[in-house]
């Protein structure tokens, strides 16, 4: 069901500073910058590699407000890995299959994610403490 690791989501206080760090230390390139009001983030996708099943990225996340998912995470745990995003062929179908196995779905239906993707989150409490995102890449 999981095709690849699409991205690792990293929570940070200052997006521009963290972009500079990933560019200068790892030589990564920003391929997209977006504000996603629904998710409460300002974010950037940095390309890591291309594989048979698609590309993989680091997603840097800065909260738009303290009272958001990433804002609360930063206050509680500080900067660090926030979630893992796995590529799937069909996010609606994956949600049905995973929900049927008793895993709590944060999103019953897909939402809008980076670069036109359809995304949905699974509750970290049912995935061994790992906030898990399913990503269906847009077919552009
Ligand atoms: N990873 C692992 N555990 C996490 C977590 C994370 N990223 N965020 C919160 N938790 C844990 C907390 O530690 C807490 O556990 P304890 O009760 O044992 O302390 C529990 O989950 C509830 O956390 P909370 O502080 O009450 O936080 P929220 O109200 O924000 O709820 C969650 C948590 C996962 C439901 C919420 O963050 C959410 O809906 N996330 C999905 C959306 C999202 O993260 N969007 C930003 C990224 C967008 C993108 O990738 O495009
Ligand atoms: Co993500």
Low-confidence stretches: none
Radius of gyration: 15 Å
From the helix content, strand content and strand pairing, which structural class follows? alpha+beta
The overall average pLDDT, rounded, is: 97
| CATH topology term | 2,3-Dihydroxybiphenyl 1,2-Dioxygenase, domain 1
H/E element sequence: EHEEEHEHEEE
CATH top level class name: Alpha Beta
Quantity of strands, as a count: 8
Domain VOC: 4-137
InterPro entries: Glyas_Bleomycin-R_OHBP_Dase, MeMalonyl-CoA_epimerase, MMCE/EMCE_epimerase, VOC_core
Protein name: Methylmalonyl-CoA epimerase
GO molecular function: methylmalonyl-CoA epimerase activity
SSE topology:
Blueprint: E1 4-11, H1 15-26, E2 29-36, E3 41-51, E4 54-63, H2 69-77, E5 80-87, H3 91-100, E6 111-112, E7 118-122, E8 132-136
The protein binds carboxymethyldethia coenzyme *A and cobalt (II) ion.
Enzyme class: isomerase
Keywords: Isomerase, Metal-binding
Organism: Microbispora maris
């Amino acid at each position: 069901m999981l095709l690849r690791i699409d991205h690792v989501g990293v929570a940070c206080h200052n997006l521009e500073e963290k972009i500079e760090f990933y560019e200068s230390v790892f030589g990564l390139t920003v391929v997209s910058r977006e504000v996603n009001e629904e998710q409460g983030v300002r974010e950037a996708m940095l390309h890591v590699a291309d594989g048979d099943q698609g590309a993989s990225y680091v997603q840097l996340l800065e909260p738009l407000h303290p009272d958001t998912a990433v804002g609360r995470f930063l206050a509680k745990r500080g900067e660090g890995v926030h979630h893992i995003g796995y590529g799937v062929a069909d996010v609606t179908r994956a949600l049905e299959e995973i929900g049927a196995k008793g895993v709590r779905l944060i999103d019953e239906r897909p939402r809008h994610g980076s670069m036109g993707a359809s995304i949905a989150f699974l509750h970290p409490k049912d995935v061994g403490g790992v906030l898990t995102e399913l990503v269906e890449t847009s077919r552009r």
